[in-house]
Each structure stands twice: as structure tokens, then as C-alpha cells.
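Cross-posting from the modeling subforum.

Setting up a comparison between two proteins and wanted a second pair of eyes on the formatting. Protein 1 (sequence, then C-alpha cells):
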Amino acid sequence: MMHTFLRLFLQTALLMTASLSQAAVTPPKPNIILIYADDMGMGLLGCYGESLVKTPNIDRLAEQGVMFTRCYSSQYCCPARASLLMGVHDSHSKSYSETPGGLVITAEKQGWSNEEFEQKAARRAGIKPTPQEVFLPEMLKKAGYVTAQFGKLDWGFTTWHGELQRHGWDHYVGYMDHVRAHGYYPSFLWKNGERLPLEGNTHADAGKTPENYSQGATEKRRGNREGKVTYAPDVMLRETLKFMEENRKKPMFIFFSTNLPHGPVDIPPAENVYAGNPEIRKAYANASGGNKECGAAAEEYASMVDKLDRQVGAIVAQVHKLGLEKHTMIIFASDNGHEIYYRTDKGRGRGLDYHGGVVDKNGELLDIFRGNRGKVGLKNAMVNLAGLKWTNHEGGIRVPMIVSWPGTLPHGKVCHGLVANYDHMATFADLAGVRMPEGKDAVSYKNMLLGKPGQLRDYIVIDHTIITGDGWKLTMKNGQWLLFQISRDPEERNNLAEKQPKQLERLQAIYKKEAGSPRKDR
């Protein structure tokens, strides 16, 4: 009998060992947390070279993971978010529509019920998704993930509960209207189809501050706090941490789509940590393009970046508190490049003559933060980029991207591979162990993260612009072809369309095929 018992014991032990070994080889689906900043250029982050504004929590993600230097997204909020959630580039026709904003403000002013708002918002939608369309949260939900988003919901433009359900969201808290999301003190946010009141807030337009930096405007703009008590980003963070706690035993996909640091600038006075900063004050005191009022706004803007960084730190701390750090991949990225919300003449950033230096050739202040600078692969050097948000120049469409997954990804790696914001869908499909839906443009960057051989992009398509893996860029402006070798000319100063006819012809063929083309499956 002893021999029989021993044999059974050994067999059981072997089975348990095999089971444990299999578990080690095939880990459970990782949690995926995508933190999406609003209008944040690479140059605003310490890990990409910023020295004035401190971003220790975001920098730590880069130290513990992989930092990309060639990640691209759209110059506008809506197409950037739509392409991310659909896995297709933003230059297709008939892929998504920009539903007009401002409807939530109208609904509040006119006293609409939730049902009335739902009906009117649905009627305003342009292109309706076909039954075979698959969205990123929908794909992950089918793979067993519980899905949630917080902040500017979906495209960032007007959405509604039915659309959010169709896209595959189990849970959401935030703004359903991008116009309202430009204010930080809404009277309510939306939570799973219901209104979530924010204590002490009374403004239908969310208390949006005017972009007025004339003499004496700061006190008028900042001094009146009536109806502005609860800062919406605090509520969205609180709801995010609560969701993580409640769903810690399930694979989670969280899209933290904050409206920080989008302007107009607004930060609770107690959190204006850069108020009186001597470098900012000195820089704007004598600038012809600005004044001390612009300096005060720049201080608030820097404090908004600080606020976002602290929120990133709170999310990471919650991951550690729940013991999920080895099972959670965190991605930090942005929808667009930098915008100078603290200047009176921000329109000057729309053209090729705008670069990321502190001053221009005449000594006039451009941007104290140098937010549209970036590391571009030239020995990791920081260089100026042309243009800002609203342009398809490098400063408008090249964005930060950092991926951290302790225990799985290498630490402190810098990746110069070409990545588009719509590639998240294919990468997350890889991580979830599911097939990508048909008709998408996304290509997984998983092997790039792990340093393994795999598919690398020959080119990406962003905002009717072709960018190639070997460092060329083609777009059209005012009927003229613009061809740049951005690997050598990241400031886009030298149009080579006439001098490089073979390169022009090569990229024109891609442009004709991709930019403005209909999707193959639609």
C-alpha cells in the first residue's frame, strides 16, 4: 500500500509541476492601461528633454520601459481618437464622422432629459458603423477584458450612451462633448448613461476660461471662482482608481483619455505650483509677442502638465497597491502635438516658419517650454520640429509614446521604429491572443517592444501625409508637393520635391493609393 501511495503522490506532484510550468510559459492576458494626454508634444516631458517643467512619474515609465521617438498621430483631436479606436488611418474617406460639438451644453441650458439628448445626438451622427465594423474596446471585450474609459469619451466629439455601448465599453465616466471638455468645471459628467453631478459646479459650458491675456486680464479670468468648485480631472481619476480596485481580478483595458493639458488654461489655484516661477516670468516680461499676462497663463499651463504627471503617478501607484505591476502594461501617449495656449499669437505656429526654439532669429520669444521639440534618432539629440497642433508638420503630428511593463519589457530602451497611433489595435490583439479584424491598417509593435525580429513598417499614413521608415515625408499644401528628408531635416526647411524626382515619384504612388482612399472592406 505504501508503494501505491508513493506512486500516486509522485504522479500528483508531476501534474502540479507541469501545470505550474505551463502557467509560467503562458501568462494570463495582461491588463492594458492607455493614458492619452491631450495636445502634449514630446518636448514637454523630461524624458524627451524638457528641463523647466518636471514630469518625474512619466519619466519613470520611460526609465522602466521603452520610449519611442517616431510615433505619429493626427493633427486634430477627433481623427486621432477615431483612428486609434478603429485601427485605421485617418485619411480614408467614409471611415468616421465628426458629429458637431456643443450639444451637451444646449441640453443643459434647455433642460433636456437623458432620453432627449440620446435621440438628438444619434440623429446628428453622420456615418453609421456597419455591423461588421469592429472597434478596439469591442475586440478586447470579446477577448475577455472588462473595458472602461475616462475623460474625453471616444472621438472627443459628441457621443451618446448607445454609441459607447456599440463600441464595446462596459464602463465610462467623462465628457460626451468636446466643446464642453474645453472647460474643467462641468456641472456634471456622464457615467454609464446617467449624469454624475459635480458638487459646487454651475456652468453649462464647464466654466471654460477665456483666452484673454490683455493687461489685467489674469485676475478677472482667475479671480472669479463662483460655480467652479470640483475639478473634473480629479473626479475622472477617482473613478479610474475605483474601477481598478473593483475589477482587479479580471483582465482590464482602461483608456484614460484625459483633457489635460488642453487649453484654455485652468488649474485650481492651490495647485498652481509654477505660480511666480522666475524663469517663466522673466521670459515673458519683455517679450513682444506676449506680456506678464501670458507669463501667468504659462505658469498655469506648466501646472496643468504637473497635474497630469501626478495623475499618472497615482495610476501607477494603484497598480502597485493592487499587486498588478507584473501583469499590467501601461502606455503613455498623446493625441496631437504641442499647442501654445498661453500666448496671444498662437496662430503663428501653423506654418513652416515656426520651430521649437526659445527665440526666433530676431530674438523674439517663441516658446519657453520648447514643447514641439523632440528626440528624433539623431544620436538621441533634441532638435526643433516645425509647426504645432493643427498642422501636419512634425511638431503637430509627432507625439510621445512610452510603454512600461516591468518584468516583461526591457528598461530604458529607446526605439526609433516607425509607429502610428492606430497600431495600438494590432498590438493589443497580440497581447490578448485574438485575431485582428479584417480591413484594418494597424500593424503590431509588440516585437519592437521586445526587441525581436518582426514586421516593420515601410510607411505610415497620417493626415494625408506619407512618412516612410527610411526617413522621407510627402504631403501637399496649397496644391504644392512638399518632400522632406526628415531623418536629416526634422525642421522641414528644405523642400526636395524638385531635386529628388525618384523619391517624389515613389511617395506619390503611395499617396495616390492611400491618402483619401476608401477602405477596402467598406
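Protein 2 (same layout):
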Amino acid sequence: MKSTDAKIPVATKIATKLEKHGDVRIDDYFWMRLSDEQKNAIEKDDQTQKVINYLEEENAYYRQVTKITKPFEEALFLEMKGRIKEDDASVPYKSNGYFYITSYKTGNQYPIYSRKKGNLEAQEELLFDVNEMAKDFDYYQLGGLNISNDNKLVVFATDTVSRRQYFLRIKNLETGEIYKDIIENTTGGSVWANDNKTIFYTKKNPETLRSEKVFRHVLGTPTSEDVEVYHEKDDTFGTYVTKSKSDKYIIIGSHSTVSTEAQYLDADNPTGKFTMLQARERDLEYSVSHFGDYFYLLTNKDNAINFKMMKTPISNTSKENWVDVIPHREATLLEDFSIFKDYLVLEERTNGLNKIRIKRWDETADYYLPFDEETYAAGVFSNPEFDTDIIRYSYNSFTTPSSVIDFNMTNQSKEIKKEQAVLGGKFKKENYVSKRLWATARDGKKVAISLVHHKDTELNKNTPVLQYAYGSYGHTIPDSFSTTRLSLLDRGFVYALAHIRGSEYLGREWYEDGKMLNKKNTFNDFVDCSQFLIDQHYTSPKHLYAMGGSAGGLLMGAIVNMNPELYNGIIASVPFVDVVSTMLDESIPLTTGEYDEWGNPNNKEYYEYIKSYSPYDQVEAKEYPNILVTTGFHDSQVQYWEPAKWVAKLRDLKTDKNVLLLDTNMEAGHGGASGRFDALKETAKMYTFFLALEDKVEMVKN
């Protein structure tokens, strides 16, 4: 393929001096930052138009460069779409006398929500057809469905911009009427009091988007009369409101990275005063469930770094009254628990693998569900029913499509309610191989890499490998099945998921060792995993690719500054790359709540450490691999100007002729497209980038 004559965008340089702790940074692209008012204004001012023009120039360049691969991209999308059962429905779940179902119809982008009363043979009752609701919007997200105790009303949340600022509305399920009550700028969640007319919800700060206030709304009253019941004034904390599974208590929670706090209220008394369960203390975390006369707590109290389960009497909830139910274990991370009338179900992680433990309250049974694959992902559903012997859980792996399973905790029988269909007639589980490797990082730590590939793929220096990771916030990426990934595996790619520090794959310490002043361990682990795959002849730098999004996009930015020679291409999706400037700006959404993840650069030690790895600050005049960067103009998590500035600076300084592309979705935010097919198109776009490079399809050189 011959190079096109596409014009490479050149961003204007306007030097802005940024000074902190006596250190001066010159940001030539600071002008790209727009406020929400500027972005959303009908008539654009000069700066706004200049930014939009630049983004559109980059988009036009992206389209021109990838024009030659567009037919393949569209074919790849159809291939991915062809594996999906379009006319499909979820396994119904039972709650408060009704079975709830989510379904899709052939050709539809969005789900249909319905229910049946009493049994699955009953007449189906339509709740929401999101396809009808979304037809006039470029982006549409429905969420937060919350049914009242009398089953007559539902609160629902909508976002039509993709900034995760939801409108709350209420629908009468008997008449179909949608009430006039509209509550703006919420998190999307809500809680019904037991009177079926009072709801509690959380509002966001309109500028920082921090969830900061809990309000009480009474049906039929103006939203202007809603009562503020809690204001979280510490800007390093967010707040939320939830309800216990028992329906007995409404709980207001406050949370930071290292500390939590909960207050509770009898759900029969919505105008009452909330009672503090345990006041916040730094480094004390706990979450709350209710059963009988006790609150049950998942907590790190008493230096339980991997968490343990405790209980405390409702009559006396302060921490000196907490007693162990499941003690702390050094080798096992307790991730969650579910309470049933006769059983306690624990979700644990040992040596990186999910475990589901079943324990009777009367101690006559205590056992683990058997999982025998080397890598897999398993998790317990919400299971809203309390008085039941059945738990529902999911299971899948790199080679096994997802199954929804009902397990009888009494007789230990199981019923597979649904197995994910993979259409097209080509998928056979036995055609794929998965395994787990352990790379040794530069400080001696063993880092797991989960691999999957087609059985016919030869592993050598010419094998293309896509290495993926996230590595922040303690979030562990599961070894789960993907129908879209088959398009890479069937074309000879190996997919490698690196379980680097910053996740909780090997317990809470694995997370602690990959944040704050240990953050570089995250980047080092990824690079060392790459070097391991090269050294063990799974691939070579000409055929190694990397991909990550959001904080994983920061990872991509860091590793291409550190070791660009190891990779032929990377994709950084909605990447958090201007870390110093963002963490110094308290007006940007999420900044203040992130200080205990990245550090507060108002402190000189953290400023210098963050600057030493911040991708935007560390761009140099050197050769970089082929790079595709994606972002959303309305992104509230990572503002669009971070990747835009990063690309502009890379264009100015890089000394290679490899391809560098910026693709901005002008209608979407952090999560990308909202429809299921539009999301597939984005995946096809990214996979085409890697496949074009690997197939040596010449893209325009820049």
C-alpha cells in the first residue's frame, strides 16, 4: 500500500508557563482546554472553534490514513457481529415476586426491560424499550432501575451526553405514566423508603462531578423542595446512598481511597435522623450488610490488609464492638460476601484465582465450588432473594464462553441456566489454548501473565502478541472470554493479560505496591513482562503490541516513554497522560478524590515523583512505535485535552516515521459508544490498527 498525501495536522504552539515548587513547565498546548460551558455553547467562541477545528483535522487525518483499511474494518465488524446472538435474553432473576428479564431483538442496539409476575408463564409486562427512548440521541444510557417495594413504581436514570451526570425520573408501572418529577445531575442511583413514596438520591458537584450530597424527594412534590439530608464536605471523599438487602435500613456511605464511613436509617422512618455506624478514620475501610440483629462488615480493621468479615450489634456499632466472623488470612483476599437466611457465601482470591466459598451459619457445611481450569473468572450475582438455597454465579475463561449457573447450596447440585452462544459455526473451545506464565520483575517479584491463542499458532519470534493491562485502583482484570478477541486469535495473535502491580491479583499488597510512591512498579512490571515474552521467544519487538485504557492509557504512555523499542504498536484509549496538571487542578472531575491513588502534587515529593513518569511531561525527541490514541469529547473521567495535547507534543518531538493517530468521538465520553453494535465498531477499528501493522499493510508514514 502506497502512502497517501494526507496532510499531517500541526497544532499551534502557545507557550503557557506553569510553575510549582519552584519548578517551571512550559505547556505549548494548554490552550486546548475548554470548559463545559464552552463545549456546550450553541455559538462557539474563537478558542472553542480553534480546538474543535484541531480535533476535526486530526479526525480527518485519521480517516484519510485508514481509508485503505476501512473495507477490512467493516468486514471485521460484521464478523464480530456475526458471532453474537442478536435475538437474545438474559436469564430471568426473581425479586419481590417478579421475574425480571433483559432482552435484545435482531437489529436493535439497545435492550428491552420487562418482567413477569409470579412465574415465567405469566404475561410479560414491558418496563422500558431503550431503542425507542434512544432514537433521537447520538448517545443514550439507561440505568439505575429501582422498583418500589409495592412493585408499582420504578425510578430510572438517563444520560444523553456521556458525562455520567444522570437525570432521575419515575414511571408508574400500572398506568405507564412517567411523572413530571425530573432530578438533574445525579449519580444515577436511588433508594426507596418503605413508604413507596420517598426516594433518596445522590447529587454531583456540577463542576468537579464529585458525588457530594444526598437528598430526600417525596413523590408529587417539586424537586426544589427536596431535603438535603447529607453533605460530604471533605473534597477527598465521595458519598452514595444504598439499601440493605434485608430492606430494613437505608445507608449513606462516604468513601475515599483509604477510608470509609457509613450512617444508617430505619427504612420505615424516612424523615428520621441517620445514625453513625463508625466514624471515619484514615486507613480504616468497611462496607456494610444487615442480617438479624447485626451489621456484617467487610473491613481491613486490625491491619487486615486482605480484609476480613466482622459483625457488630445494631445496638452498639462502634469499632470496639466488632468481632471476627471470617478472620484475616495473609494468602487470601476476601473480595465480597453475600448473606442468605441459612448460608454465607464468600468471594475470595488466592494466588490470583477466584474462589467461591459456601458456609452454613450453623457450621454444618463449609466448602468451595470446584473450578479446574488454569485461568478463569467466576463471580456471584447480586442474588436479591434472601430466603433461598440457590445462588446464581457466572463462570467463564479465556477459552470457555460465559455461563450463568444456579447452584443448590443444600444438595450441591447445579443447573446451567444459560451458556453464551458463539454463532458463525467456527468456534470450538478445543481449538484454543490458555495458560499462565510467571515473569520475574526487576525487583524479583513474580508477575502472572495469562495467555490465550489458537492451538495452531506457532510461538516464536514472528508471533504477534497483544499485551494488555490496567494496573490501578486495585482493579483486577479477569481472565474472561471474549467473542471479539477471536478475530485476533484466529489470525494468529496471542493475547497476553499481564496482572501487574496496582491490581489486587495477588492480594491487597499487590495494589499497595503499585500506587502512590510505588506507582513505577506498575510500569516496570508491564515492561518486564514484555521483555520476558521476548526473551522466552513468544514474540519479538517487531511483533509485540500493547493496549490499555484510562489509567491503562497512562500505562501505555509511560511504557512508550520508557522502552519504545519493545513495541511495534500501541493503542491508548481515553488515556490519563497529563498527570501533573490534572492532579494540580482541583476543579477537574475526580482530582481531589485521587490523591490517595497517585499522591497530591501540592506536596513537593509527590510532584517530583509524578512528573518523573507523567507521559505528557516525559515526551522526548526520540523514536516511538506506531500509536493510535482514542478519546471522547465529552469524557468526564479523562478530559479530551489530555490525549489531544499528548498527540500534539508527540508529533512535534518524535523522530520516527511511524504512524501516529488521534481519533476523537465528538459525541461520546469515557465509556465510548452506547449501542452494542457501535461498541463493536470501535473494537473493530482498534483491532484493524494492529492487524494492518502486523500484515505489513503500509499506512501513511508521518
